[in-house]
Amino acid sequence: SDLRQMLATQSVENIQFLPFLTTQVNNLSWLGYGLLKQDSTLITVNAIGAALQSLYILAYLYYSPSKGPMLLRSLLLLALLAAGYGYFSLLVPEPRTRLARLGLFCSLFTISMYLSPLADLARIIRSRSTRCLSFPLTVTTFLASSSWTLYGLQLQDLYIMVPNMPGVFTSVARFWLFWQYPPGQEKPY
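Now predict its structure.
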């Protein structure tokens, strides 16, 4: 729905960039974890997710009036991802150790992805407006984090299960914000 809104309005007003950028890095990291673990579910879901996030980022950059900061953030996270790839490929030769370290790396990014929409929490409470939050993204985050938590539980993979639990909790917090500050009842700054 955010992509549809950008295309319809040809604007990125009230759409956050950081959650989608962290989701892109998250998808690419988990894709690497899935390839190393040879888990077709992780590979398929994260390959599709990375393709969709690339489309979103390109549209956001196209419609953004200030491309510089967005492009810089994208390049910094891409450089971090490349450094991580180099580290895991060249400096950690033992596959089991590489899987554990990559799992920890992916876990940290997953947690940051789930916390990023709450970056504007003070502004939301001060303005009593959830206008900068995406309700569809909140719903999909809740469903995705719940699904991945259950999948990790089924596989007994703590690297999948544990970092997705904050996604469930932050989604519930965002649902509460939507309930507390319904759209259309904005208070001007």
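The chain has a mean pLDDT of 84.
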